[in-house]
Design goal:
- The chain is α+β, with helices and mostly antiparallel strands.
- It has eleven helices and eight strands.
- Helix 6 runs antiparallel to helix 7 and helix 7 packs parallel to helix 9 (369-385).
- Its main location: other.
- One of its GO terms (biological process) is epithelial cilium movement involved in extracellular fluid movement.
Length: 426
């Protein structure tokens, strides 16, 4: 059975009712108070206070303050009037039950409305968050597009500059060719003039047949004689015709002398390089969007080198991939892509590209020594990163055989030896 709280004090004005309910020694919270338009209830088991108000109140703006063992209610009236009493008097049980149930139903409806309002507010908050996220993504997308456009403009400018340089180089080459042709013409004219002058000199120095006979003919006077024989003209030899001696030297591609070089291997290497330069297939579907000047493996290799220098290793890999689609016989493309994979820690791919470069760098000649050293060093570094120190040491020692004076490679090989020694001891 509940213990009813009967003691309370109240006063009123035209717009509000002030109710003071003593609850000494009881712990009260807002969950213990229930208030509707015409029903007020305080439940602190086993204590209970219940009041059916004389007239409706504004339960939304009404307040309850808890402190010092007292609950102080401020109940605002819906209509300005003076109440005859705080509660309804002489009301039957049915009416009181109806007021109680109506208060509970209204409270439930109000709770549902508040919950629905919270859901709507939550949905609006989610919608706002999604819109904000979309705006941020759009801003990021726009920023990325702007960066791409700037990069595209930079590439276009570089391409235009490269075209201009190529045109200037062609013009300079044509100018040199014209200048060489003019020099050859002038030289030929000078030689022709020299020949004419020599002919004139020969004509002036050697007398003709009529004058020589009259001049060399002896006179018939007494004591006349000649110191030249009569057949002097027949004894003189003919003048030599002028000529130019040309000396030709054997052209050499490699710096080693012919007597020290391996001619067969060098010729095979040059033949393979020439075939690799000619093996360009620009009919691939991935390359349709490229311009004609961009379908050059050399141009794409230079572009990849620039990307690698700026630290954009993924873009450099893409450039080398396109170049290899165009021509998969150039070892430098595999060698440069292996360096990118090392930076990206794709060690297995670095080993594959280095091995492919070494396959193409055959036969071994002085012209590809530097490339073979780089291939062995990069593959050895990838092996060491995968903790395959024995294989890595073999590659570094192979690089040292090609370039025995390279102190950096020798130092790295010594480090790997120490690592292998430490691993075997452990």
């Amino acid at each position: 059975m509940p213990v009813w709280l009967r003691q309370y004090r109240w006063r009123q004005s035209g717009t509000a009712v002030f109710l003071s309910l003593p609850v000494p020694g009881l712990r009260v919270s807002s969950a213990n108070i229930f208030c509707s338009e015409q029903y007020l209830k305080v439940s602190i088991p086993p204590f209970l206070f219940e009041a059916f108000l004389f007239a409706p109140i504004d339960d939304t703006n009404s307040t309850a303050k808890i402190g010092n063992g007292t609950i102080f209610f401020t109940l605002y009236k819906k209509e300005v009037a003076m109440w005859e009493s705080l509660t309804l008097e002489n009301a039957d049980k049915e009416k009181l039950q109806y007021l109680r149930q109506n208060a509970v139903l209204k409270a439930q409806e109000k709770a549902k409305e508040e919950e629905q309002a919270k859901k709507v507010t939550k949905q609006e908050s989610k919608k706002y968050a999604v819109e904000a996220t979309l705006k941020l993504e759009e801003a990021d997308r726009k920023r990325i597009e702007d960066l791409k456009e700037k990069e595209r403009q930079n590439v276009t400018k570089e391409l235009e500059l490269w075209k201009k340089q190529q045109k200037d180089a062609e013009k300079q080459k044509e100018y040199k060719q014209e200048w060489v042709q003019k020099e050859e013409l002038l030289h030929q004219e000078a030689e022709h003039l020299k020949e004419k002058e020599k002919e004139k000199m020969n004509k002036t120095m050697i007398p003709n047949e009529g004058t020589s006979k009259t001049r060399l003919k002896p006179s018939k006077g007494l004591g006349s004689c000649s110191m030249f024989p009569e057949n002097l003209e027949e004894q003189l030899p003919a003048t030599r015709s002028p000529a130019t001696i040309k000396v030709n030297f054997t052209s050499r591609v490699f710096p080693t002398p012919l007597r020290e070089s391996r001619v067969a291997e060098e010729e095979e290497w040059l033949h393979k390089q020439a075939e690799a330069q000619r093996a360009v297939s620009a009919d691939l579907s991935e390359l349709k969007d490229l311009k004609e000047e961009e379908k050059s493996p050399d141009w794409l290799k230079d572009k990849g080198n620039k990307m690698f220098a700026t630290g954009n290793y993924l873009a450099a890999v893409n450039a080398y991939n396109l170049a290899l689609h165009l021509n998969n016989k150039l070892p430098l493309l595999y060698l440069n892509r292996a360096a990118c994979h090392l930076k990206l820690r794709n060690f297995h791919k670095a080993i594959e590209d280095s091995s492919k470069a070494l396959e193409l760098l055959t036969p071994p000649v002085p012209d590809n020594e530097n490339a073979r050293v780089k291939a062995y060093v990069r593959r050895g570094a990838a092996f060491c990163q995968l903790e395959l120190y024995t294989e890595g040491l073999q590659d570094f020692e192979a690089a040292l055989k090609i370039d025995p004076k390279n102190k950096a490679i020798e130092k790295d090989a010594e480090k790997i030896k120490h690592l292998i020694h430490g691993t075997t001891q452990n």
